[in-house]
Amino acid sequence: MSKIFESIIHKRLFHQVKNLISPSQHGFIPKRSTATNLFCLTNKIISSFQIGSQLDVIYTDFSKAFDSIDFGILLNKLHGLGFHVNLTDWLHSYLCNRSLYVYFNNAVSREFSGTSGVPQGSNLGPLLFILFINDFTSVFKYSECLLFADDLKLFSSMNSNLDGVLLQSDLDCLFKWCTVNKLHLNIEKCSILSYTRKSQPLNHVYKINDRVLSRSDSVTDLGIIFDTKLDFSQHINSMVSKAYRRLGILKRKTKEFSSEIALKVLYYAHVRSSLEYCSIIWDPIYHNKIEIIERIQNNFLRYLLYKKNGIYLQDVSSSYLRDMFNIPSLCSRRDVSCVLFFYKVINGSIDCTDILSAINFAVPARSLRNQGSFPNVYSRFKYIDRFSLYKFYKTFNKISGELDIYHMSPTVFKSNCFQLLYT
Length: 423
Prior knowledge:
By secondary structure, the protein is α+β, with helices and mostly antiparallel strands. It folds into 3 domains: 1-227, no CATH class; 233-327, no CATH class; 333-421, no CATH class. 50% of the residues lie in helices and 11% in strands. It has 16 helices and 13 strands. Strands 6-7-1-8-11 form a 5-stranded mixed beta sheet, with helices on both faces. A two-stranded antiparallel ribbon has the order 2-5. Strands 3-4 form a two-stranded antiparallel sheet. The radius of gyration is 25 Å and the shape is globular. It starts with a helix and ends with a helix. The model has no long low-confidence stretch (mean pLDDT 91). Pfam families: RVT_1.
């Protein structure tokens, strides 16, 4: 009953405060995700590249953020947001009157009361944490930020050393906010990455509490490896290596399996899913990268054929095997995923104004048959073609005569996308 009651409180509470939550926050918010967070960053980087600028991004790390929330400060913030005193009293009881104990090797400690931290694994815990840190976005005067729960990125365009000074000023404001609110930055794990295609970038020195932040050539951000050129080769190589290991485990553990359906389910869950996480961010355009990823699935298809016939056949084409087992190519699945992502943005299934405002709609002077719904973007730079928004323009315009992105239901649109783009 307590979980049900907590769920009801969360639903009613979120409905009241959702308009107060910063649009920069993507964690634990319905209709937002790691993909929306990373797209917003990628869009900023691409925009910076297009004008020949540099984007400095400071990646921060909080020490035990969820466990460090001070109850008194949290309740004061909730009161400041307009929470009724009866609700804040109930939340005080919910947070403070909790008995905790440690269980280890069949030994149980004496019960004790927690003095800080929101309950993890609960419905209310993440929402209370988001409301606690929600106000620190207002302290940044010269830079922008993106959040996924406690994962914070602070960034600004660099056109001169003055821009670095201004970003440092906002970094100082962040440290002051952390001090006042009793949250601690793990400075050793904070780093700076300068995204630029310049041969001589600006290397401003950033500090937190007089400690210099380390510079990196790459960083893992929400599971995706970003590099200074936005190339994603390092991420693809790492992803492929992990996928081969998972496929190897799958083969070893399914030696006695004979069910094609069971093998497919295991492959989809443990291998293919890892090859498709946030694919709209890193989707490659070069044939060699596409082929490297596709080989993993081709390997699995030949394993399925071996299970079916008892022998490995190397001279069978991959397209034949895909048709035989009704498994589309990974490349075509990424195309469908890209189109569906922006369909959801346009129709409100993804709630992110920054992404929606980035989409340009083609409005022809007169009605033409087969007129694309979105502008065709031409550039001599390959990194532009890799950008998911421009890939969406190109992919959707090819099939726009068969699809109505504004009025088709999600089920019908998805089904038609599969038919038109799957190979």
